[in-house]
Structure formats: structure tokens, C-alpha cells
Amino acid sequence: MAERTVPLTIRGGNIVDPGTGFCGPADLFLAGGRVVGLAAPGEQDAVGEVLDVAGRVVCPGLIDLHVHLREPGQSHKETIATGTRAAVAGGFTAVCCMPNTTPVLDRPERLRDLHERLAKHAMCRVYVIGAVCLDNDPERPADLEALARCGCVAVTDDAFPLQTQQQRRNALQRAAAAGLPFVAHCEDKGLSAGGVINEGAVSGQLGVPGQPDRAESEAVAAWLELADCGGRLHLAHISAAASVAAIAGARATWGDRLTAETAPHYFALNEHAVLEHGANAKMNPPLRTEADRKCILQAVKDGLISAVATDHAPHAAEEKARGLMDAPFGVVGLETALGASLSTLPMAITDILARLSSGPAQVLALPGGHLAPGAPADVTILDPEEHWTVVPSAFQSMGRNTPFAGVNLRGRAWATIVGGRLVWHDGHLVDE
Ligand SMILES: [Zn+2]
Ligand SMILES: [Zn+2]
Questions:
Q1: Residue 218: which pLDDT band, with cuts at 50, 70 and 90?
Q2: How far is CA 430 from CA 50, 122, 392, 422, 424, in A?
Q3: How many whole angstroms from 244 Cα to the centroid of ligand 2?
Q4: For residue 156, how far is its CA from the centre of ligand 2 (angstroms)?
Q5: Distance 392 CA to ligand 2 centre (A)
Q6: Domain 8-58+376-429 class, CATH top level
Q7: Which ligand number lies closest to the CA of residue 330?
Q8: Which ligand is located closest to the Cα atom of residue 311?
Q9: Burial of 391 by CB count in 10 Å (0-12 exposed, 13-18 middle, 19+ buried)?
Q10: What is the reported pTM?
Q11: What pLDDT digit, counting tens, does each position of 340-390 carry?
Q12: Residue ranges of the chain assigned to CATH 3.20.20.140
């Protein structure tokens, strides 16, 4: 992903920058892969190429902390090329990729192979989250210092949640020693065992086994007991009200070292979506009750959950066609996250965009998330009032597994600029 050195002037936009707090009409100047600065509309002559944006919202490029790109090893589900095309179509200029590929991203030679693939195929920035254990075996620790040297921005147990307190403690201590945040997939496998959706009214109605919300919240509570380990803890895909209560209760002890994310499906949908969308509404953790949904939404509004991430998890159509019991967990999210957030969150647009840009940047100390001079030239331009219907067959992602199929959303990315290069424009990828 080469940066573009030719200057670009984004003219006539309405800047919404949650990173600096600046909001208002201004022209934005990019050059050398960086933000040069802002000027009052028309005050300074355009430099280089010009993109007229006609009053659209111009914000820092969106950042997704939780994406499964599936490459290497599962390219029938998604590839680096298609996953990052989906990202830029959805307005994301950077994504963090999860390590549960085949093979697992747990050692330097595999990281080097991935970085070579990324350099060839990625349309946006990709930050790598490494696996905390070798081949997902909780008894075989990965060399986290080596992963840090290979550029990993965090380590995780995502998809293979650690189960004992000794494993959790050990993981946090090792991550802290390597200077890496730990991203925790909070799930007590003893409690979730066999459950395919939330345990409750809908699982009862369908006669399928459910996962109780305690499977998540008790694991959250277990992680939160480990503040003495030092380091930074980020809780992935929070779905349950009981987890939010636990996080709120632990804030005083942990301070800024504790952060959490949720995904749009957890504040836009509840367990009843399974009745309409079947296996395309099956993910882990599952969609919860309406009370949980409202609580998650409030936690995003309050900032207790400071990042909205997608947990983009593409699967092949034939895999999802196996039915609710046998289909794999996971839904795609890169191309619906912005619209679902703008349509659902009862918040000022600055605050919504904060949860999708400056908030995630802060969680993992990533570049970007603001448009101050010197920032990466990563910019998203959106139509916040555009109404559109989600048509999975039109996705850039190979995954069609979304619980938002047929849903009307408001707000969509119109253009995406990565490193000063226009990569998505008015519904199309931009080829050089
Ligand atoms: Zn997970
Ligand atoms: Zn995940």
C-alpha cells in the first residue's frame, strides 16, 4: 500500500474531526501521505488534484479493531484483497486483522509471510493482532516479544478463549512484558458449550441450545480480577448488559488500561433477528435480548465502550446454509458498520464517528483518528443522510452472511482515501 505523494485538495466539505474536536466547513489539504492542514472554504487555492465533495461530511478514516481477513488458509471465505476492498467500501482506512488463520499468526516467519501478502494485496492499512499461544494451544505460549518486533499491535485469544485464571494471568503478564495490549475474547466455554444462539425466548421457541449471557459476563469478571498483572486489557465484542455492569464496576481499579468494543449488530439488533435471518444472524457471542441491546447502546453513548468494531467474520454461502445448528459462527460487518451506527445510535455525528475513528485509534495507540497537520492522509467522506438498502450480493466482501440483508440504513461512505490515495469513490473501487 504505497502512499501517494501528489497533493490532493478535498474541497467544499463539512469537516467532522472527533480527534481534534474541529467541526465546520473547510477545505482539507493532503500531501506526501500526510494531512497538511485545513483552510476556510475557498480561502486558499487548491493544490494538486482536487476532489469536490459538495458539503459532504469529511472525517478521519474509520478504523476497525476487529476483522477476520481469513488469509492465509481460508481463502474460500475471504482474502486480503476482498476483505480490504470491503473495508474501503465501508469507509475504513485501517483494520486490525485477527490471527485465527491457517496457519495461526503466532510466530515471526508467519508474520513475515503475512506482511508480504499485505504489501501486495491490501487496499487499506492492516495492523496485525498476533496469537497469544502457539497454534491456539493454551499451554504453549507464543514469543510475544518476537511478535512485537514483527509489528503486531496487540495479542489476543480471539476464537480460542483462555479458560483458566492461570492462563489468563499468564497471558496478561506476558503481553504487558512485551508492551502489547491484550484483546480478550470473553467466554466461559463450560457455560456456552453447545449453545448456538442466546439462551432465552428465541432459543426456547426454536428448540435449539442457547448460550447464557453469563458465559460472557463471568469471563469478563474473571479478566477484570487481574488488574495487578499490569498492562492494557481490551475486551472484544461485548454483547451483554451484565458485562457492561462489570466493566463499569472495574473502571476505578483499571483506569485507562481497560477498554472495550462492541459491534453494530449488538446495538442494532436483538435475538429476534435470528427468526428472520437464521444462520446469518448466528455469531459468537450471540445477539442478546432487547434489554441487553439497549444497555450496549447506552454504554456506547456514555463512552464506557469507546470503540465500535465489526468482528467481520466472512463464511462461504454453503457453510452458512448448513442451518442454525451446524453453520459456523460469524457475520460480515465492514460494509454495514457505518450505516448501522449512523442509523441506530442516538448520538451526535461527532460522537458516532469518534467511536469509529479516534476511539479505536486510542485503544491500540494507532496512527490516525484525527485530521491535525501531520496525521496520516487517511480520510473518509460520507453522505450521512443517504438512505440505502443492504444487498449482500453487491458486497465487495466474499462473505454474504449478514443479519442486515434487506435492511434500510442511513449513512454511507462516498469516498475513502488511504495515505492520500483515493481508493473508493461514489460506489466504486478506484483502480490506478
Ligand atoms: Zn471473538
Ligand atoms: Zn473475532
A1: very high
A2: 15, 13, 21, 7, 5
A3: 19
A4: 10
A5: 20
A6: mainly beta
A7: 2
A8: 2
A9: exposed
A10: 0.98
A11: 999 999 999 999 999 999 999 999 999 999 999 999 999 999 999 999 999
A12: 61-363
pLDDT confidence of 33, banded at 50, 70, 90? very high
- Backbone φ and ψ for 148, nearest 5 degrees, come out as -60, -40
Q: What pLDDT, on the 0 to 100 scale, is given for residue 2? A: 64
Under DSSP, the state recorded for 355 is H
Interval between CA 107 and ligand 2 midpoint (Å): 19
| Across 165-179, average pLDDT | 98
Ranges for all domains in the chain classified under CATH 2.30.40.10: 8-58+376-429
Please, which residues have CB within 8 angstroms of residue 327's CB and are 6 or more apart in sequence? 279, 282, 315, 319, 320, 321
Rounded to the nearest whole angstrom, what is the distance from the C-alpha of residue 221 to the centroid of ligand 1? 16
Q: Tens of pLDDT along 290-301?
A: 999 999 999 999
Q: Is 311 a catalytic residue?
A: yes
Catalytic residue among 311, 326, 378, 426: 311
Ligand nearest to the CA of 161: 1
Amino acid at 394: A
Question: What is the predicted pLDDT for the residue at 363?
Answer: 98
Question: What class is the 61-363 domain?
Answer: alpha beta
Residue type present at position 295: C
